[in-house]
Amino acid sequence: MDSNNTTLTTKSSPAPINFAIALSELILDISALIPNIYFIFILWSRHDLHNNLRVLLASFSSCLILVALTRLPTEFNYIFTGVLYIDIFNWLVYGHEVAVMLLISIAIGIYIGSELNNSSIRNGVITFRGSYYGLYHIIDVSVRLVIWIICFAIFVLILRYNQRCYAFSRLPNKHNLVQRYQFAENVRSSKLLLAVGIIIFVCNLHFDCVMLRIAYNKDYFNVEYSQSFDFVLAVALNAIPIAAIWFHSSMLEAFKSHLKHLTSCLCIFKCVSKSNNSIQQQQQLAINSILPFPPNHPTTTNKRLNNYKSPRALLTGQKLIIGREEEQRVYFNELRKSWNVPPYEMKKKYIKY
User: Where are the transmembrane segments (predicted)?
Assistant: First the structure.
């Protein structure tokens, strides 16, 4: 057996800092299943977004779940043996790298998996034996980084354009009702996608920096660099669905309602002595919290109308009507005003014409 295989299969305990990072990654990967599955449930059960966007976001969350699941065996193996990659896990390395690189490129993921299997690991240092990490690799990573920056800049410009169109759409006789709804939907969706895009952009930027570090010295690459990318990815697996829900007003209200409903259910199990009437009242409050204007409580409605503040735009700082119920109320109030013209206004029109 050569020194390469000996290095790869020798069992040892990981260093304390590497063990702490690997344990944190394991906890984050396991916890990432909860927000991603809940985000898919929200997309499936509600119609807050366009159907095509819902399908794309659900597919993306499914990929994140696949990434989290394929990372678990390698992390368990490293925690208990101190070995990052061994021959028996060849299929797992390929599956793990392909799942991760679905966010960038499947072909690059397969290549990185083969490079890791053809490399030696000794005392926390990885030595890559391939000849790929040269000038061509630097050009490839740099071009990909520039493309990511250009795409992100284009997205921000489109968001700025939609916000500007939405601001002007509220002017009288500027756009019809359908166009105003479309502008509002564009702003609402872009706010969600911007938060997700920032997280993905940071992950890809960190990945490109790690790849450039390999190109700088492929014979001496500390394991901590690879673990730092894995840790950032584990954080992103949790942050992406949470940010998608947090930056969408309707989804956030639905999450708060589900959380209140879950809390009320836990209170039912803890406080068995409560009557059925009080339990029904708690559940009714949890359900009504979804609607910003409850239909059966006029006093609460007036309070919420007076205290309601529209959120501001991300880039311009202008006030935007993001809530669907608030938006419908404003639009249809304007339509009702145009329909119910006062008599003296009608006389003025007839006299004028």
Answer: 20-41, 53-70, 98-114, 134-159, 192-216, 228-247
Question: How far is 231 from 80, CA to CA, in rounded Å?
Answer: 18
Task: Give the contacts of 247 (CB within 8 A, at least 6 positions apart).
Answer: 191, 192, 194, 195
Please tell me whether residues 85 and 229 are part of one structural domain: yes
Which structure tokens are listed for 5?
């295989």
Q: Are residues 97 and 122 in the same domain?
A: yes
Query: 280 CB contacts (<8 Å, ≥6 apart)?
Result: none
Phi, psi torsion values for 222, nearest 5 degrees:
-65, 145
8 lies in some domain: yes
Contacts of 5 (CB under 8 A, 6+ apart): 87
- Answer yes or no: are the C-beta atoms of 129 and 5 closer than 8 Å: no
**Containing domain of residue 296, as a range?**
256-352
Place of tokens 């344990």: 23
* pLDDT (tens digit per residue) in 171-226: 555 556 666 677 777 777 777 888 888 888 888 888 778 777 776 666 666 777 77
Q: Which residue, chain included where needed, has tokens 């890559």?
A: 128
**With a threshold of 0.70, does the pTM exceed it?**
no
Residues 267 and 124 in one domain: no
Dihedral of CA 253/242/309/333: which sign? negative
Assess contact for 244 and 251: CB atoms under 8 A: yes
294 shares a domain with 229? no
